[in-house]
Design a protein that fits this description.
Structural class: alpha/beta
Number of helices: 10
Largest sheet: 8 strands, mixed
Strand order of the largest sheet: 1-4-3-2-5-7-6-8
Helix content: 40-55%
Shape: elongated
CATH class of the largest domain: Alpha Beta
CATH topology of the largest domain: Spore Coat Polysaccharide Biosynthesis Protein SpsA, Chain A
CATH superfamily of the largest domain: Spore Coat Polysaccharide Biosynthesis Protein SpsA, Chain A
Distance between the termini: 9 Å
Number of strands: 8
Oligomer: single chain
Length: 342
């Protein structure tokens, strides 16, 4: 872990007669205007707060040390900027090492209401989920306050995330208000997770390959004078390429490497038939147009039939994939054969 640690305190160890150890990770980069207010809003249910200064040009780590007297706060500093993903992974490692049971990640820009924290950790402590994330789209009236470009971008990214991650029941993938059970976090490949703004969606892909249960938590976003470092309009194309990569990996891991099912044949066969029918039909349509003659009905049927069958097979695969969303929490399973990362 590339960090300097401060406020050394005894490790958090849960005993049978103690409440669960809940830690909060706050990536800190140009948030000095809001971070103290964010820390003050974190309730007593939290045992430790990790402020990760990601080589912040404003010196947010030093700022917190100088102006925050909360004994729960521990400042971690990166020697080089690693992005939000790198900052969160540093916080995860520290929280796991200190014995935290649940780790919450919130941003330091004041957009996330710290009073909602119990709602994020409750499904995890109840054994219903391994990972929870915020969803700002549950209230159709309130989302009108969201900037139109951000609303459109989130909708597009959500659709791509469903396909690449396999969590068809989730929305709002760029939402950074999350909580995770430490037993699920310790199995994440920390060094492989995306370091920059693709972090939240890459986390979902990694969690799906582990079979973790993820749940949305309804929330309202606050939009004030904070400056967002994420420009949705500029990352949709970049994210699309990464989603294609993750989708291919997920298919290989879940449908060929770890398991084989009828769906393993439906998708490639469906794509092959659809592609063949489309190319065959297009070829004969162009030839007919050049010759000035109508395409024979038999040729049309030879093109249409593979397309129809191919689309049906693709839809069957999607139906199977949707039904395969994990439902049994990972931290409830016994995984003695796995070796945790980090």
């Amino acid at each position: 872990m590339n960090s300097t640690e401060h406020f050394h305190q005894p490790a958090l160890r849960r005993a049978s007669d103690l409440p669960p150890a809940v830690a909060v990770v706050i990536p800190s980069y140009r948030v000095t205007r809001h971070i103290l207010e964010v820390i003050e809003g974190i309730g007593p249910e939290v045992t430790r707060i990790y402020v990760v200064d990601d080589k912040c040009p404003d010196g947010s780590g030093a700022f917190v040390r100088a102006h925050c007297a909360d004994p729960r706060v521990r400042v971690l500093e990166h020697a080089e900027n690693q992005g939000v993903g790198g900052a969160v992974m540093t916080g995860y490692r520290a929280a796991i090492a200190d014995g935290a049971e649940v780790i919450v990640k919130i941003d330091g820009d004041g957009q996330m209401d710290a009073s909602l924290l119990p709602a994020f950790i409750a499904p995890i402590l109840a054994g219903q989920a391994d990972y929870t994330k915020g969803n700002r789209f549950f209230d159709l009236e309130r989302i009108r306050a969201m900037p139109p470009m951000r609303l459109f971008g989130n909708a597009a990214l959500s659709l791509m995330t469903k396909l690449s991650s396999g969590y068809w029941n989730l929305f709002d993938p760029t939402n950074g208000y999350t909580a995770i059970h430490a037993d699920a976090a310790r199995y994440l490949p920390f060094d492989k997770i995306s370091r920059r703004y693709f972090f939240e969606t890459d986390m979902l892909f990694r969690l799906n390959t582990l079979g973790a249960v993820v749940a949305d938590v309804p929330m309202h976003a606050k939009y004030g004078d904070e400056v967002s470092n994420l420009k949705i309009s500029k990352v949709v194309t970049e994210f699309a390429l990464k989603h294609v990569r993750n989708f291919g990996k997920r298919l290989f891991y879940n449908y060929y490497l770890r398991n084989m099912s009828l769906a393993s044949l439906e998708l490639p066969l469906g794509l092959l038939l659809t592609g063949f029918g489309a190319l065959y039909g297009l070829h004969h349509w162009i030839e007919g147009a050049r010759a000035g003659v109508a395409t024979p009905a038999g040729t049309v049927m030879l093109a249409a039939l593979p397309v129809i069958m191919g689309v049906q097979l693709i839809l069957a695969f999607l139906a199977y994939d949707i039904a395969m969303v994990p439902t049994r929490p990972l931290h409830k399973k016994l995984l003695p054969q796995l070796h945790p990362h980090g």
